[in-house]
Amino acid sequence: MRNYRFFLTLCLFFGLTQTLLGQIDEVPTKGDIRGFVYNSGNGDRLAGTSVSVIAAGEKPKFIRTIFSDGEGYYALTGLLSGKYILIFTNTSFDTLFSEQTVTAGRNVRYDAYLTRVESMGAVDIEVKAKPKDAKVGVTNIEGKTIYKMPAMGAEPDILQYLQVLPGVVFTGDQGGQLYIRGGSPVMNKVMMDGLTIYNPFHSIGLYSVFETDLIQSADVYTAGFGAEYGGRVSAVIDIKTRDGDRNQHKTKLGLTTFTSKILQEGPMKKYEKGKNNSSYAISYRNSFLRQSSAILYPYIDANKLPYNFGDLFVKLNFNSANGGYSRLYGFHFTDNVNFAGSTKYQWAANGLGAKFLVVPEQAKTRVDGYFLYSNYKIQQIEKDARPRESSIGGFNLGMNFNYNMKKDDFRWGIELNGFQTNFQLYNSNNRKITQLESTTEINSFANYRLVTKKIIANIGLRGQYYASLGNSSLEPRFQFRYSPWKSIGIKFAAGKYSQNFLSAMSDRDVVNLFYGFLSGPDNLPETFNGKAVTSRLQKARHAVGGIDYRIDKRQTINLESFIKVFDQITNINRDKLFDDNQENAGKPARLRQDYIIETGKAYGGDFSYKYSHKGLYIWMVYSLTWVNRFDGILHYQPNFDRRHNANVMVSYEFDKKNPTEFSVRWNFGSGFPFTQTQGYYEKQTFGTGISTDYTAGNGNLGIIYATVNGGRLPYYHRMDFSAKRQWKLNNNKQFNLIFSVTNVYNWPNIFYYDRINRIRVNQLPILPALGCNYTF
After folding, report:
1. Are the CB atoms for 513 and 586 separated by under 8 Å?
2. Whole-angstrom Cα distance, residue 71 to residue 66?
C-alpha cells in the first residue's frame, strides 16, 4: 500500500504539471523561435552558445539572453508577433546576426551555423564568463583539456585528469580506484553515453577504458547531483563521446611503450548544411605491458607489471535535417592480470546502446529516448581452483521530455532498469559467500529550472521503486546559485540518494583486484545499533555549498564545503567464521552472517584555482576531508580516508607551426589509514570439524591485528612529466611524438605491506615512456 501511494503521488505530480503546461499553450497569442546551433564547418552541435533576442524597430528593445543546451538546442519562447534580431555568440566562433519574423501561435525554425575563427596561437581553455546552470559540486571537462595533463605511459587518458579534481582520491598505480568525497567506488555511477560502465579503470591504474580522442566532454558530480541521476549514493561521472568526422575519412595509428591503438572515422553520408548526414567511429587499443616491461624496465620486478588489456568501441551516428538524431554504439573491454605462480584476474565488459532525439515541428516538447545494455564479469583464479567470480548484466529503457519557457525549462522522464548478479567468493576465513539474484527498478524524475537575473535554481524530485525488493525511495533534489555580481557566484545543493547494489570488496580491503558486484541482499541483519533494519537499500544525504570568483577572463577560483551522511551502507562481512545454518544457530550472528550494515559520514572542503592564457595553463587543487564509518561495534576510518590532498598541474604550449607542449603534475597526499600487526599465531581452520587432529597437523600462519585502521602510512608525493611535439604535414596529416616520465624523482611511495613475508611493497618507480601517433 505504501508503494501504491508513492507512485500515485508521482503520477499526480506529473499529471498536474502536464495539465498546467497544456493550459499555457491553449492561448496562441505569442510565438517562438527554436532551432539548433551548429559548427558550419563540420556540423557539430555547439552547446553553451549565447543567444540574445532584440525586438527590431525604430527603438530596438533587448528581450532576453539564453544559452543552447548540451544538444545545441535553443528556444526563445513567448515572443509577441513582429520582427526580431537574433545574436549568436560562442568563444572561438564569429558572432552571427539574423533577423526573424514571429507569428502568433507558430514556431519559427531557425538553425544557426557559426564559423570558427582560426586560432592565432596555442589553444586556451576558456574561463567561463557566465554560469548557465545552478549545478554545484560539478567539474565540466572538455575533451581538449585532458591533453593538458602529463601523458603517463606516453598516452593521455581521462583517468589521469580525474585524479586532479577537487575531492577525488586515487589509491594506487596498481588496482587503484577513485574515491570521491568520501564515497567508495561502487557508490559512483560511471556512464558513457548513458551506458553504465561497471569497471571503468584497468588494473594497471594508469588507464581507463575510454578512448581519449573520442571524448567530447565529461561532467563529474562529486556531491549534490540533480534528479536526472539515480541509483548511486556518492557521485556521478557522465562521459559523452563525440561523433565521427562528417567531412572526411581519417585514420590514426598510435604506438607507445605500453600500448598500440587504431582509430578510424569518417562520413557515411557527407555533411552538407541543412541536410541529413551520418558518420562512424571505430577505435581499438591493446596493451602489451606484460611483455614490454620485461625488456624496457629490467630494474622492476618481473612480476610487478603483469598487466594486459584491450578496448574496442564502435559508434554510428545519424543526423536529420530537423535536428533529430539516432545513435548506435557498443563496446568490448577486457583486462588480464597474471601474477606468475600465484593469482590470475581476468574480466570482460560488453555494452550496446541506442539513443534518439525527436524534435516535433510545432510541438513545445522535445523527446529523447534510449535502450541500453551492458554486462561485466570478473574471475579470480587461485591455486586451490575454488570458484571466485562475479558477474552483473542489465538494461536501461527510458524516455525524457523537455519543455522550454521564456527562461525557465522543465524536464521529466521515466526509466525501467533490470539487472542480474551472480556472485561466489571465499572470504579470508575460507567461508563461501554466494548470490544469484535478478532485480527490477522503475524510476521517474522531474526537474524545474528557474532562471532570474541573479538566481538560477534546479528544483527536482526523483522516485526510485525497487520492485524486486519491495522498497521505494522518494528523493528530493535542490540546487541553487545566486550571483550578486557577474564575477561572483554563491551556490548550494542538497539531496537524498539510494542504491541497490554493493561491491564484493570490503571498505577495509587494502589491495583487491577482484572488483565484483552484488545486488541488495535479503539476508541482512535484522537490527543495527539497536534499531530494526527495514530496508535493503543503501542510503545517503548530501549538502554542498560554496563560492566561485572569476578574477578576470584568464583566471578563476572556487571554494566548496560538503557533507555526506551515509544512513545505511552494506558491506561484505570479513569476520564470518561459520556457515549460517541450523547447526551454527547458537553462534553469534556477527560470525555467521554474509553481510554487515554500517553508517558513515564524510565532510570537508576544497579549494581550486585555474589560469589559462596564451598557452599557459595552471590548475591547483587542495582538499581537506574526513571520512568515518561505524559498523555497529567499531568506529573507524576506511582505507581511503586521506586527510590532505593537493595537486598542482602546469602546462605550456608554444610554436604555432609545430605545436610543442610541456606538462608537469605534482601530487601530495597524507598517508592512508592501515591496520597494524600485533603478532602471529598458528591458525587451525578445523576443516574436518570436531575430528580434526590439531596436534598432528600444521596450521596456517595467523595474524593478530591491532585496532582497525589505527595507523597511518607515510605521506605520498609524486611528480609526472611529459613533452609533446606535433608536426603538421601536407593534406591535413599529422605526426605526434610524446615523451613522458612517471614518478620523475623516483620517490618510494608505499603501496602496501606484505605481513606474511614482512616486506614493504612500493608503487611504481620512475617509469619513462615514449610514444608516437600518425593521423592521415
Report:
1. no
2. 14
